[in-house]
Amino acid sequence: MTWLCAIVVTTLALASPSAEDFERGKTAFGRAEYARAIGILRPLLYPEIRLDSEGDVVQAHRMLGVAHLFENQPDDARREFRRLLELRPEYRFDPLTDPARVVEFFNGVLKEEEAEITALASARKRRDQELAERVQREADERCAARVRTITVAKNSYPPNFIPFGWGQFQNGQRGKAWAFLGHGGRPGRESRSARSR
To answer: How far apart are CA 21 and CA 58, in angstroms?
Structure first.
């Protein structure tokens, strides 16, 4: 039990810095401290992604794109919005709730990358469909493995009333059938008592 607690504590200790940094980055972004948000969020994505879920990665790219835009770094903002569109080709900013500057800039990136985004969207759709088909196929295979085939032999009912093991012969129980016939074994064999004489 002690080793299990140690593993859980170690796992939480390893996982929590990224989650804490992500929350700190979100807080800085929410306060419009864009330079600080960039400093916190960028190491969570580059050189390797340190976030646990795809949703967090999408949100981090979104915040970085907006932060770079408001820090007058349009090339970095464009790069982040492209990464965002690679992950979610259908993503759009809301003109009612998001700043007009962000919506216009993002729509410009969207227009520049329209052909590539359409290809990404169709590739993602294919990938999702293939994944769904694979999951269904694996589920079908698991179900097929669990199904038991039971073979039922249909024998004629009246021979069961014939004495001396006929029913056992019909059921494939030859040993019982010969026992009923009194031979104690298969035909052609002598019984032990006959051999001992």
So the answer is: 15
Indicate left, alpha or beta for 93 from its phi (over 0: left) and psi (-120 to 50: alpha): beta
Distances (CA, A) of 129 to 18, 24, 30, 59, 133: 32, 36, 36, 24, 6
Do 82 and 117 form a contact (C-beta atoms < 8 A)? no
What are the Cα distances from residue 123, in Å, to 57, 81, 130, 157? 19, 19, 10, 63
Q: How confident is the model at residue 186 (pLDDT cuts 50, 70, 90)?
A: low
- Pair of tokens at residue 169: 């012969």
Residue written as tokens 């969570």? Answer: 44
Question: Each residue of 120-166: pLDDT tens digit?
Answer: 777 778 888 898 899 898 888 888 777 766 777 676 667 666 666 66
Say if CB 49 and CB 74 are below 8 A apart: no
To the question of pTM greater than 0.70 for the whole model, the response is no
**What single letter denotes the amino acid at residue 147?**
V
Closest CA relative to residue 22, chosen from 61, 48, 60: 60
Structure tokens at 192: 């032990």
